[in-house]
Amino acid sequence: MVAGGIVLNGSANLSGSSRRAKFPPSLRLLRHADFERVYKQGRRHFAAHMTVFYLPRAENTNLRVGFTVGRVLGGAVDRNRMKRRLREAVRLQRPENSAGVDVVINPKKSLLKAEFKEIEQEIARAFAVIHKGSKG
């Protein structure tokens, strides 16, 4: 069967993969108080398309990441696109054996026009800095 120039067969799964990659709540920074603590007590790493704030936690659980995208960066569509791109870059670049660190990522307007590979590299560099900073 042909629909809109796309050949469909009975076994086609149009909704994408049945096993979607997730960014579970246990890996997210959600509470306002946690964001405030990272901003006030944490350290900063500056990159071309974002600023990364991080603060090691006493309990050595896992890395938690939060995103703040203010209205000054654009409309809801642009802000949501920034968050989706950042979430995916973090999911792909997150270190496996990460210590208990809270991370807040603030994108800059230039993130919208950046290549995804460039965003991934900046996230990977930030995680390397965080790993080095939380060890020493």
Explain what this protein looks like in three dimensions.
The chain has helices at residues 32-41, 76-93, 116-135; strands spanning 2-3, 6-7, 43-46, 50-56, 64-67, 101-107. With 136 residues, the chain is α+β, with helices and mostly antiparallel strands. It has one domain: 2-Layer Sandwich (Ribosomal Protein S5, domain 2), CATH 3.30.230.10. Strands 3-4-6-5 form a 4-stranded mixed beta sheet, with helices on both faces. A hairpin with a 3-residue loop joins strand 3 and strand 4. Helix 2 (76-93) packs across helix 3. The protein is globular and about 35 Å long.
| CATH architecture group name | 2-Layer Sandwich
Low-confidence stretches: 1-18
Total number of helical segments? 3
Backbone structural class = alpha+beta
Name the average pLDDT: 85
**Fold-level CATH name:** Ribosomal Protein S5, domain 2
Can you count the beta strands?
6
Helix content class = 25-40%
Terminal Cα separation, in Å?
61 Å
Whole-number radius of gyration? 18 Å
User: Per the principal axes of the C-alpha atoms, what is the gross shape?
Assistant: globular
Keywords:
alpha+beta; 3 helices; 19% strand; four-stranded mixed beta sheet; 136 residues; disordered N terminus; 6 strands; Ribosomal Protein S5, domain 2; 35% helix
Q: Topology, pairings included?
A:
Layout lengths: L1 E2 L2 E2 L24 H10 L1 E4 L3 E7 L7 E4 L8 H18 L7 E7 L8 H20 L1
Parallel strand pairs: 5-6
Antiparallel strand pairs: 1-2, 3-4, 4-6
